[in-house]
Amino acid sequence: MTGIVEPKPASVEPEFLNELLVHRGFDQQYGPLVMLWHRESHPKNHGVNRRLVSIASGLGLCWGIGFPKMARPIYCISGIWCLDFGHPSETVALGVPSAVWEVLTVHTGRVLVAVSLESSGNPFMAEDRILTGRARVAYQAPSSWSRLGRRP
Q: Potential cystine with 77: which of 70, 108, 149, 152 (Cβ 3.0-4.6 Å)?
């Protein structure tokens, strides 16, 4: 599988978002990184994988470890880091990062984003089990968020 995941409406319930596992790290080769995965994801759990691919689709990620440029940024609004995956009222909250990760991310102005379809969140897996992209950092929410009543 290669190429961009076709955008489609994100059909992910808020409860699922609360179950996502988030790893923020820094790789010498790739820079600041955010990895999302779910502890129940594996090749035969189609329900969880479908939701993860829906999030990846909304983010504009591609299959494999190519890290192409994403249309949507990673947001840091009043110190709260999140990703907008196209859901009408929800974002993916990234929790509180380490000071080192935050400084490196602000300095580089970009973050590599990955969604793993493995329960381990291993970033070095088969290219058909990971979706990736490269996001710029934005510090202001789009005006559409206030119309929708959305918060980071």
A: 152
Segments forming the whole domain that contains residue 91: 14-136
Whether 147 is in a domain gets the answer no
pTM to 2 decimals? 0.86
Percent share of the chain, pLDDT over 70: 86
130: nearest Cα among 114, 113, 146, 143: 114
The first and second tokens of residue 63, run together, are: 């299959």
* Residue 129 to residues 119, 122, 124, 126, Cα–Cα distance (Å): 11, 10, 10, 6
CA separation for the pair 17, 86 (Å, rounded): 13
The answer to the question of residue 27 being in a domain is: yes
As for how many domains the chain has, the answer is 1
Is residue 8 one of the residues assigned to a domain? no
The two beta strands, 130-138 and 110-116, are antiparallel
